[in-house]
Amino acid sequence: MLIDRPQYLRHLEQWKDKSVIKVVTGVRRCGKSTLLELFAQHLIDTGTPKDHIVSINLESLGNESLLEYHKLHDTILSRCNGDGKYYVMLDEIQNVPQFQKALDSLQTHRNIDLYVTGSNATMLSGTLATLISGRYVEISVTPLSFAEYRSAAPKDETVQRTWSRYLYEGSFPAIHELDGNNSLIDDYLEGILNTILVKDVAQRLGTARSATLDALTRYMFDNIGNLITPRSIANAMTSLNAKVSAPTVSNYLEALSSAFIFYPVSRYDIKGKRIFQQEHKYYGVDMGMRRIFCSGKVRDTGRLLENIVFLELKRRNREVYIGQGPNGEIDFVTNGTNGPAYYQVCESVHNPETLERELSSFRGIDDNYPKTLLTLDDAMPTEYDGIRQIYALDWLLE
Question: What local confidence, expressed as pLDDT, does residue 11 receive?
Answer without folding.
Answer: 95
